């Protein structure tokens, strides 16, 4: 019998052609399946890494959301407000962020400035930062000079959280509960200082995320906001849908071509 791809195209409906396309030697599944399958996601990550590196931030976000989704699974058997479950960063992050130099720009920090924020939060001192850290320390320690309308600085954000937000290496970063994971994603992809900030034409996406994190406090100035005790597991659903649509539009077709020509 003839192979499927040798059959005249109008012999099967589009739905049936899609159903049997897995037999095609050049088959590439839909992007939604690519993102949820270990093999295909690995191929997709390498394609973005080598051919569209400026879009790697979307890969980081997707990997984090896959981990964050596990809180939704645990909440089905436990109470929704249960924050005891902790989940680590994606193991793949060890490839991208095991070298601190690769992650030193997170939250808009650069060079020794970012390293100083990290070490300050951990109560360690590294002598090689020199005068740069002294200047940052002098400027950012003057909390009395800030009024409620002054945006938070990097050092203040780091102090405010219960974990080292600059550390994206899963081998050295501890596991997070649901609220901490949401904070980690927020300060890396949504906050104004985020190095991997994802821009949205629909500003309601950011408002929804901040409403889930801060509740009624989200309308206040940044310095007056207080995190809620827990967050909805659906906090990043709208953001994920927007990222998926963008990736489908900008990366899926060239990814399929690459898979069929490499």
Describe the structure.
With 262 residues, this protein is mostly helical. The protein contains eleven helices and no strands. The longest helix has 25 residues, at 237-261. The chain is globular and about 60 Å long. The two termini are 29 Å apart.
Topology (SSEs and partners):
Layout: H1 14-20, H2 31-35, H3 38-51, H4 56-77, H5 93-97, H6 111-121, H7 130-140, H8 154-160, H9 178-189, H10 204-214, H11 237-261
* Number of β-strand runs: 0
- Global mean pLDDT: 79
Approximate helicity band: 40-55%
Helix-strand pattern: HHHHHHHHHHH
How far apart the termini lie comes to 29 Å
State which percent range the strand residues make up. Answer: under 5%
Largest sheet: none
Radius of gyration: 22 Å
Low-confidence stretches: 101-106, 109-144
Question: Quick one: overall form?
Answer: globular
Structural class category: mainly alpha
Instruction: Specify the number of helices.
Output: 11
